Amino acid sequence: MILSELLKSKRETKNLLLREVASMIDTDTALISKIEKGDRKPTREQIDKLAIALDIEHSKLLKLWLSEKVYEDVKGEDVAIDAIKIALKRIKTEEKN
Amino acid sequence: MILSELLKSKRETKNLLLREVASMIDTDTALISKIEKGDRKPTREQIDKLAIALDIEHSKLLKLWLSEKVYEDVKGEDVAIDAIKIALKRIKTEEKN
DNA sequence: TAGTTCTTGTCAAATATTGTCTAAATCTAA
DNA sequence: TTAGATTTAGACAATATTTGACAAGAACTA
Prior knowledge:
Two copies of one chain form a homodimer.
Chain A: H1 3-13, H2 18-25, H3 29-37, H4 44-53, H5 58-74, H6 80-95
Helix pairs in contact in A: 2-3, 4-5
Chain A binds a DNA duplex (30 and 30 nucleotides) through residues 17-19, 27-34, 36-37, 39-41, 43.
């Protein structure tokens, strides 16, 4: 499940209108629409607010958001998998200290 | 081995001066110095040129460069590992198609 | 068809990144 | 030590990227 899909399905489950979510996020409907369509990435602050507005576990949303940044960095590269693995190892070894 | 370290050690192995590398990369010594100290990230074009100038396998350099972008995205996040893993899965499943 | 919701395109403002210059710091050899 | 060379640090303009906002169009609903 991709971030944009999650946001849209959650909003629909809760029967909220774009304008209602928009006001909770302090922006306009156009931006929310774009976020739900994957045309724009939410900022981190928006992620925080969206978690509250849509009642989604914050860390779940954050994970998805971060993973999409990672994905964008490497997609289309033929060394994508190796690059991600290198980063993963680095994170893991750092956590041990 | 981190990108900046690799670049510096390779240059030293080859007994090149910053200004020599700089001219091959079409920039000035200050920038190369910063790259070697990790203060600046090379652009992708610079990675390509550095691979040639320093005689480093291009894909190796590219992997390191990409991995550091990934690392920067998630470092310090307590969901960092999960986020990377999600991205990794996504890349893997997409490659199958 | 009118009213509402959603989508799209555009563009300026805000941010972030990059390149270059200058001068200071560090190193090296005589 | 000092002169000359190399490397580093700081500042700042140029560029690029991201973001927010507006307006108009499209799609949906009653």
